[in-house]
Specification:
Length: about 325
């Protein structure tokens, strides 16, 4: 939410075929164009129709500039945010792979994307990615478009890389963002390795981004897997959890509404790039894909372990 603003000066726009949170090859919406008689009905149909309209270009820099005082306060004072490892970024476009564990308002993600804009400005564009259900919400979806967020789909990310931009994904999705606080320092990607295939076909390196502090902004007491399964949430919204959380201003509540994040210390580290084979056929090599996935997972866990050692206090520190 990434070396020139648009390295080849192009702007790409196309019909939008959404994807899962990891830009998987098994894009559930492949072949749909979001309109006409082929569109699904009900909630899925609404998501299809609202998802159209993204484009690969620059974010609205003036819009971001007007928000700078707010985000400066949030990052520098409220979250006391630290981001290291800028020197590890490769020169060309890359796929950043992160973790976020701060419930339905993933502040590590929001804050990192703004920190990137503050660090690079127009020099290097980073596209955040988001779940379809958030991208299509009135207000929030419009905000996402203005700041350069795109759907987490194979198509949108391919066009971002083709335009010379960077993109960041959080493959763990809801399993990651809504993991219990007792697992706050555990990297959970849910076995979702579609981002590896995306990197192979796009010919870009993978750059892991470790993070700590997010789980302290909203404390997840239970991930509510059984409840989510009972009500069919995976089929309805592609979500596998429905957590019970503690946060402001509601106290203990079912996390269906965003909470006010508590002032935890956020630490992020951009880790060494992981190169992948650029032969597109390797995207179909399950063993190779799984090997690279595990390499990313291990490197993220090592990064999280190192960041966790810097805590001054058990919580918020």
């Amino acid at each position: 939410m990434a070396t020139s603003t648009s390295r080849n000066g192009s702007t790409a726009q196309a019909s939008r075929n959404g994807g899962d949170g990891s830009a998987s090859r098994d894009d559930r919406d492949a072949g749909r164009n979001g309109g006409g008689d082929d569109s699904p009905s009900g909630l899925q149909g609404l998501i299809e129709r609202r998802r159209k309209g993204w484009e690969i270009g620059e974010p609205d820099h003036e819009f971001l500039h007007r928000q700078r005082h707010f985000w400066n306060f949030v990052n520098d004072h409220y979250f006391r945010m630290e981001v290291g490892g800028w020197h590890r970024l490769p020169d060309g476009p890359c796929m950043l792979v992160g973790i976020h564990a701060s419930s339905v308002v993933p502040m590590e993600a929001w804050s990192f994307v703004f920190e990137w804009w503050r660090h690079f400005g127009r020099e290097r564009i980073l596209h955040g990615t988001t779940h379809d259900a958030l991208f299509v919400l009135p207000g929030i979806g419009d905000y996402f478009r203005r700041v350069g967020v795109i759907p987490a789909s194979h198509e949108s990310m391919s066009q971002a890389f083709a335009a010379g931009h960077d993109a960041i994904v959080w493959p763990g999705g809801d399993l990651d963002a809504l993991r219990p606080w007792t697992k706050r320092d555990q990297v959970i990607l849910g076995g979702r390795d579609g981002f590896v295939r995306q990197a192979i076909t796009a010919g870009v390196p993978i750059v892991p981004v470790a993070a700590t502090g997010g789980p302290d902004t909203v404390i997840v007491i239970s991930d509510g897997r059984r409840l989510a399964k009972a009500i069919g949430l995976k089929k309805l919204l592609r979500a596998e959890v429905l957590p019970i959380t503690f946060g402001l201003p509601f106290g203990i509540f079912q996390s269906v509404l965003p909470a006010i994040p508590m002032p935890a210390k956020l630490r992020l580290e951009i880790l060494d790039p992981i190169e992948v084979d650029h032969d597109a056929e390797r995207a179909g090599d399950k063993r190779y894909v799984k090997t690279k996935f595990r390499q990313v997972e291990r490197r993220l866990q090592q990064g999280v372990d190192e960041l966790a050692k810097r805590r001054s206090f058990p919580i918020f520190g």
